[in-house]
Amino acid sequence: MTWDDEYDVVVAGSGAGAMAGALAAASAGLRTAVLEKTGLLGGTSAYSGAAIWLPGTRVQERAGLGDSAESARTYLRALLGDDGAAHREAFLETAPELVDFLEADPAIEFEFQPFPDYFAAPGRLDMGRSFVPLPLPVERLGDRAALVRPPVDRDRAGRGHSAGPMAQGRALIGRLLLALDATGNGDVRTGTALTGLSTSADGRVVGVEARTAGGTVRLRARRGVLLAAGGFESSAALRARHGVPGGADRTMAPAGANTGDAIEAAVRIGAAAGRLDQAWFCPGLLTPGGLPAFTLGFRGGLIVDGSGRRFANESLPYDQMGRRMAAARGPFHLIFDSRSEGLPAISVPPLSPDEQLAAGHWVRADTLDELAGRIGVPADALTGTVERFNGFADKGADDDFHRGEDPYDRFFSGGASPLVAVDRPPYRAARVVLSDLGTKGGLLTDPDGRVLDGSGRPIAGLYAAGNTSASFTGPVYPGPGIPIGSAMAFAYRAVQDMRR
Ligand code: FAD
User: Is the N or C terminus of the chain more exposed, i.e. has fewer CB atoms within 10 Å?
Assistant: First the structure.
């Protein structure tokens, strides 16, 4: 085999897991390549809030939370039973070590940020246990700043970063890039899409094939290949094949980025995949450009289905709400009134009411009857639903869906009840669609991130993390920051295994 370049470790993708894995490898002295299909680093991780759910670390200790691996184990066990127990234990064991490793780097610093865990279960911390990276002044990255994917609204508009510090997901990717660059062992190759895996006669993965503007390149990986190239949320064909609710045009992932390339390449050489119908779901509002805006933290309004009736507690954590939507019949609309000018919820990216009305994604009417006509639901059903909801708001108790009873429901309204009467015309209805933050089924791995074949044996030299791998949390989204926390933990473990 002739190689265009030789590395110890080749990482496909450049989200949080990929970059943490690359940093772990490069700082251990391994020559490491990061291959990124698009021209920008960070994928969905860069769009994210970068909440990181890695329990029992020095960050929670600094914040005086009383968090521990034990309480996180109690929580995860209550939600998942002993499904994925080996992965859970590996994750809990790795969290403090990973955070010690990351914070030992002068480029990386985290702080606790309150955000409740998503389920009322033993071991839950009401203010949560996740943390975020500190904002990063753009100047610290110099020319490299332009490589980091901007926030979702600016990125979709083809605009770069604003002048202020990089925050959230941009800060995480920027800080990991800064740290990786400082090792002198990391080679970041954008515009380089993994298309295949090279194996030796005994089936070991020894390198990759990748497509670049200049043609195909073959890169040797002496220790291993880490696949952390997202899920297949942007592939309509794969979503249909595996029965993932929602749509490739409704995902929050950067357009066209995550099409399952790495999963498919591994499956072609005998890797096993699972949980392929799963995603990190969320409600989304449509933006004027037709793409979704991730919407969470409903602190008012109510959501009706195609029959004009409520079907869930609107303030549920977004993945649970998304799953209720997948099981219900749309079209779905958020009904709210003129108490607030804008949306009684948070949307990423933020939306302008005028633009929403002009695009027809929001409609306005002076009466509920008229509003019902405009969104195509029976007027008596909508009026009855709103009257019943207003009764719940008056007495402060939702007999149907118990909205407002869980601390999470009240988190985004500063402790106030999200049961707020909808009775001040003009009324508004905003179209709500089922969106997602990415698929979460993928390659089956062992607790060291080693990709398994059809008989459950590790494929030598091949590792996976993040949404390229099947999440050990299955159909459950335990708390804010699990996608990124688990991606980083298993990427880090994969590299420790490569070093052995
Ligand atoms: P990505 O971060 O999407 O990275 C995959 C990368 O691989 C992309 O850059 C892609 O271009 C590249 N790629 C794809 N194919 C190839 C190929 N063939 N070769 C090379 N490269 C390839 N999660 C949290 O944990 N905490 C949060 O606070 C949070 N907030 C969120 C907020 C928003 C608005 C959104 C949209 C998501 C949020 N999420 C959050 C979810 C989280 O961002 C994702 O689930 C997670 O970042 C996925 O990581 P990943 O590494 O699997 O994929």
Answer: C
Q: How far apart are CA 28 and CA 14, in angstroms?
A: 19
Q: Which residue has the tokens 């993390």?
A: 465
- Residue 292: name the closest of 282, 279, 304, 306 by CA: 282
Q: What is the pLDDT of residues 28-70, one digit of tens each?
A: 999 999 999 999 999 999 999 999 999 999 999 999 999 999 9
Structure confidence at residue 89 (pLDDT)? 98
How far apart CA 197 and CA 89 sit, in angstroms, is: 30
Nearest Cα residue to atom 25 of ligand 1: 481
Rounded CA separation 234/129 (Å):
31
Note the pLDDT tens digit of each residue in 363-416: 999 999 999 999 999 999 999 999 999 999 999 999 999 999 999 999 999 999
For ligand 1, residues with CB inside 6 Å are 12-18, 35-38, 43-45, 47-51, 152, 193-194, 228-230, 252-253, 257-258, 261-262, 280, 294, 348, 437-438, 466-467, 480-484, 487
SS3 state of residue 479: coil
- Smallest CA separation from ligand 1 atom 32, residue: 48
Q: Tell me: pLDDT of 495 over 90.
A: yes
Tokens 């071991």 belong to which residue? Answer: 123
Residue 485 has pLDDT above 90, yes or no: yes
Predicted confidence band at 329 (pLDDT cuts at 50, 70, 90)?
very high
Dist. CA 422–CA 393, nearest whole Å: 9
Closest CA to 467 of 276, 250, 325: 276
What's at 324, amino acid-wise?
A: R
Q: Ligand 1 pocket test: which of 443, 484, 486, 488 has the largest number of ligand atoms within 8 Å of its C-beta?
A: 484
Distance CA 126, CA 147 (A): 37
Yes or no: say if 152 and 191 are a contact pair by the CB < 8 Å rule.
no
User: If you count them, how many residues does the chain have?
Assistant: 500
Q: Give the residue among 292, 282, 276 at the shortest CA–CA distance from 323.
A: 282
Q: Which two tokens stand for residue 100?
A: 């010690």
Ligand 1 centroid–CA 497 distance in Å is: 23
In tens, the pLDDT along 203-228 reads 999 999 999 999 999 999 999 999 99
Query: Atom 33 (ligand 1): residue with closest C-alpha?
Result: 48
Q: Residue 147 pLDDT more than 80?
A: yes
